[in-house]
């Protein structure tokens, strides 16, 4: 399992089958591309996750990434918000996936970070690094917010920033994160529901509101047809 694939799996909603692949995850965390300190941090994250109860891990994930927008793993939400540009950006990304033989399930949004990382894990290293460089400011802000909230996922996002080799000042971003008003409190969520416009069409959320169906054991890439 490549490093980007591993980070994507660890950022994704922790489904129960993840615990069946514990040894594979631990082995992948010992990636020689990382510094010894990072390998130790990554392995500690994996071990802590494997030692946790799946229901507790799932509850913690929802509280982290599915409450408020500041920690959203939908990249275009941080770039375009709810503007029309977001829809076109998604169309363009889907086309890029398809050109390279990568098909999405109907429930998946193309800008979901774990999905993007799975895709990039199958692309040439230079291309993957370039894409991570372009989204480095988003990964950096997510890393800063995670660190400010004392979330263990901070190390995963910091590794992505480093993989993109971008000039991201994490200390400056952490200072900015410390000054932000939290959007994951009960009061903030109540205000969001009051202000949220009803959306129809292709961008409307699914009715059951479940996270996308992902599996750590499944590679979503389909081989390109000759």
Task: Write the topology of this structure.
Elements (H helix, E strand, L loop, with lengths): L2 H9 L10 H8 L6 H16 L2 H12 L9 H5 L4 H16 L13 H8 L4 H10 L1 H13 L5 H10 L6 H10 L6 H10 L31
Structural write-up:
The structure is a single chain. The two termini are 25 Å apart. The chain is globular. With 226 residues, it is mostly helical. The chain has twelve helices and no strands. It has helices at residues 3-11, 22-29, 36-51, 54-65, 75-79, 84-99, 113-120, 125-134, 136-148, 154-163, 170-179, 186-195. Residues 200-226 are annotated as: Disordered.
Task: For the structure shown, list the relevant keywords.
226 residues, mainly alpha, 0% strand, disordered C terminus
Mean pLDDT: 82
Low-confidence stretches: 196-226
In total, the number of domains comes to 1
Q: Give the helices and strands as they follow along the chain.
A: HHHHHHHHHHHH
Structural class: mainly alpha
Please report the number of helical segments: 12
Give the biggest sheet.
none
Termini Cα gap: 25 Å
Query: Could you tell me the radius of gyration in angstroms?
Result: 17 Å
Count all strands and give the number: 0
The amount of helix comes to 55-70%
Strand content: under 5%
What is the approximate shape?
A: globular
Protein name: Nitrate reductase
InterPro entries: DMSO/NO3_reduct_chaperone, NO3_reductase_chaperone_NarJ, TorD-like_sf
Keywords: Nitrate assimilation
GO biological process, one term: chaperone-mediated protein complex assembly
């Amino acid at each position: 399992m490549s490093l980007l694939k591993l980070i994507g799996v660890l950022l994704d909603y922790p489904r129960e089958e993840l615990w069946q692949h514990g040894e594979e995850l631990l082995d992948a965390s010992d990636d020689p591309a990382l510094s010894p300190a990072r390998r130790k941090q990554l392995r500690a994250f994996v071990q802590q996750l494997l030692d946790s109860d799946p229901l507790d891990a799932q509850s913690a994930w929802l509280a982290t990434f599915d409450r408020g927008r500041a920690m959203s793993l939908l990249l275009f939400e941080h770039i375009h918000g709810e503007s029309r540009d977001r829809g076109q950006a998604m169309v363009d990304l889907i086309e890029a996936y398809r050109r390279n033989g990568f098909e999405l399930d109907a429930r998946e949004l193309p800008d979901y970070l774990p999905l993007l990382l799975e895709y990039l894990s199958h692309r040439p290293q230079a291309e993957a690094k370039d894409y991570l460089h372009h989204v480095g400011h988003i990964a950096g802000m997510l890393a800063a917010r995670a660190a400010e909230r004392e979330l263990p996922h901070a190390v995963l996002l910091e590794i992505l920033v480093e993989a993109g080799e971008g000039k991201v000042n994490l200390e400056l971003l952490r200072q900015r994160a410390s000054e932000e008003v939290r959007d994951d409190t009960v009061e903030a969520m109540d205000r969001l529901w009051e202000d949220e416009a009803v959306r129809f069409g292709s961008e409307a959320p699914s009715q059951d509101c479940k996270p996308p169906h992902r599996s750590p054991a499944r590679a979503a890439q389909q081989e390109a047809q000759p």
